[in-house]
Amino acid sequence: MAMSGIAVIALTSCEKNINFNLDAAEPTLVVDARIENDEPPVVILSRSLGYFGEISIDSLAASFVRDAEVYISNGTLTHKLKEYAIPLSAGYQAYYYSIDSSDLATAFEGAFNTTYQLRIVTNGKEYTSTTSIPTPAVAPDSIWFERAPQNPDTLKRVFKIRVSDPPGLGNRIRYFTKKNNEPFYPGESSVWDDQVLDGTTYTVILPPGINRNNPPEDDDNFFVKGDTVTLKFANIDRGTFNFWETWEFAYTSIGNPFAQPNVVINNISNDGLGAFCGYASLFYTIIAD
Question: What is the pLDDT of residue 8?
Answer without folding.
Answer: 46
